[in-house]
Amino acid sequence: MSDTATASTVGRAGAPISRRIPTRYLVLALIFIITALNYADRSSLSITGTSLQADLGFSSVQLGYIFSAFSWAYVLGQLPGGILLDRFGARRIYALSLALWTLVTAAISLVGLITTPVLVSVAIIFALRLLLGVFESPAFPANARVATAWFPTAERGRATAVFNSAQYFATALFAPLMGWITHQFGWRWVFVLLGVLGLVLAVVWLRWMDSPRQHPRVTPEELETISSGGGLVDLDAPTTGGQRARLDRRTIAKIFTTRPLWGVYLSQYAINALTYFFITWFPVYLLEGRGLSLLEVGFVAALPALCGFAGGLVGGFASDALLRRGHSLTFARKLPSVVGMVLATSIALCSITDSSALIVAIMTLAFFGKGIGSLGWAITTDLAPPQAASFVGSTMNAFGNVAGIVTPIVIGYTVQATGSFDVALWFVAAHGALALVGLAVMGTIKRIRFDD
């Protein structure tokens, strides 16, 4: 009997419980919502940045460094975050991470309430953004860990596409909202709202989430569907003392000498360069480079975001469909990735037109392609050895988010030196081609097992 067709079954305690929606889909919905808030938090300065800059007196270069601060700490926090996830599981570490990054986001609203020199305000926000990076570092590896445990291989492409597409949904939902709040009430209230939402989600996650085998809502049929399809249902199962085995040096050394993983690292870096342009300088480009108003920016920025969201779903669902039709895992993951990255390079065309409408159309196409090609997390869950699932995910995320350090700073200096965004757009577009190189380096996609 299919787990999706079961309208009523018997729960763990023997009581009849309605089962219309498989629990794994509710788990996916929850991590989608949390990830959308995650991206709203990290991209909040892209909407509020111009108002904050005017209020506190920051220069473009100072704003560029503030944009990059998140990624410095986010990158450094990846490996410790992955190790904590492998030892303690996603439930506790994700809840703690969510609560802490929410408090840091809310604290930004307090900067400048008391008159302070510009450099002091810069230093405080830079430090808060560093802490935000540290506390958010376990989030995406935790998402990948949850997908590995809760979804069979043939559904994992769409599962990772859904939570990865939350970044675009976050922009589509929160960019207009944050623009309106900034316009009506001031930039501080954006951070207050994000703080309240984050604390609510942290409580929901901690009270409801569990491993597939231990979750009271999971039926035997659904558990069998997940486990027989390649889901690692015991990945986060409770262990004595609440900890799991430590990673040994031999395993870590093998991870850093495995060619397919280096292909993932390179392609993820390239994809994230596109992401960080979008969540940092893109609204500023629309404001300063195209002359749009703040309210217009909030709504215009939502258009490419919506198409990026749609592209992410198309890429994930297409990949799983190819897999179900008998194509190899390598072909099913790489074909959408190649098509998407080719489309993403079209962002360079924005530098040769003065039409704002055409620029928005090109950006929309580029981010639709970027969404299609963003299968790095699916590929990581396909490759990672079970004993180091989160460590591999964190390593990939660390390399990928080096782009968050490089991209905002390079664009900041480029814009200040040239007075335009043309060179910056070519710089961003080149990363689409770099992602294709990473896919070539990757070779065959199959789960790496170091204990064979």
From TrEMBL:
<keyword id="KW-0812">Transmembrane</keyword>
<feature type="transmembrane region" description="Helical">
    <location>
        <begin position="299"/>
        <end position="323"/>
    </location>
</feature>
<keyword id="KW-0472">Membrane</keyword>
<dbReference type="GO" id="GO:0005886">
    <property type="term" value="C:plasma membrane"/>
</dbReference>
<feature type="transmembrane region" description="Helical">
    <location>
        <begin position="161"/>
        <end position="181"/>
    </location>
</feature>
<dbReference type="InterPro" id="IPR036259">
    <property type="entry name" value="MFS_trans_sf"/>
</dbReference>
<feature type="transmembrane region" description="Helical">
    <location>
        <begin position="269"/>
        <end position="287"/>
    </location>
</feature>
<feature type="transmembrane region" description="Helical">
    <location>
        <begin position="120"/>
        <end position="140"/>
    </location>
</feature>
<dbReference type="InterPro" id="IPR000849">
    <property type="entry name" value="Sugar_P_transporter"/>
</dbReference>
<feature type="transmembrane region" description="Helical">
    <location>
        <begin position="187"/>
        <end position="208"/>
    </location>
</feature>
<feature type="transmembrane region" description="Helical">
    <location>
        <begin position="391"/>
        <end position="411"/>
    </location>
</feature>
<feature type="transmembrane region" description="Helical">
    <location>
        <begin position="93"/>
        <end position="114"/>
    </location>
</feature>
<feature type="transmembrane region" description="Helical">
    <location>
        <begin position="21"/>
        <end position="40"/>
    </location>
</feature>
<dbReference type="InterPro" id="IPR020846">
    <property type="entry name" value="MFS_dom"/>
</dbReference>
<feature type="transmembrane region" description="Helical">
    <location>
        <begin position="358"/>
        <end position="379"/>
    </location>
</feature>
<protein>
    <submittedName>
        <fullName>MFS transporter</fullName>
    </submittedName>
</protein>
<dbReference type="Pfam" id="PF07690">
    <property type="entry name" value="MFS_1"/>
</dbReference>
<dbReference type="GO" id="GO:0022857">
    <property type="term" value="F:transmembrane transporter activity"/>
</dbReference>
<feature type="domain" description="Major facilitator superfamily (MFS) profile">
    <location>
        <begin position="27"/>
        <end position="447"/>
    </location>
</feature>
<keyword id="KW-1003">Cell membrane</keyword>
<feature type="transmembrane region" description="Helical">
    <location>
        <begin position="60"/>
        <end position="81"/>
    </location>
</feature>
<feature type="transmembrane region" description="Helical">
    <location>
        <begin position="423"/>
        <end position="445"/>
    </location>
</feature>
<feature type="transmembrane region" description="Helical">
    <location>
        <begin position="335"/>
        <end position="352"/>
    </location>
</feature>
<keyword id="KW-1133">Transmembrane helix</keyword>
<dbReference type="InterPro" id="IPR050382">
    <property type="entry name" value="MFS_Na/Anion_cotransporter"/>
</dbReference>
<dbReference type="InterPro" id="IPR011701">
    <property type="entry name" value="MFS"/>
</dbReference>
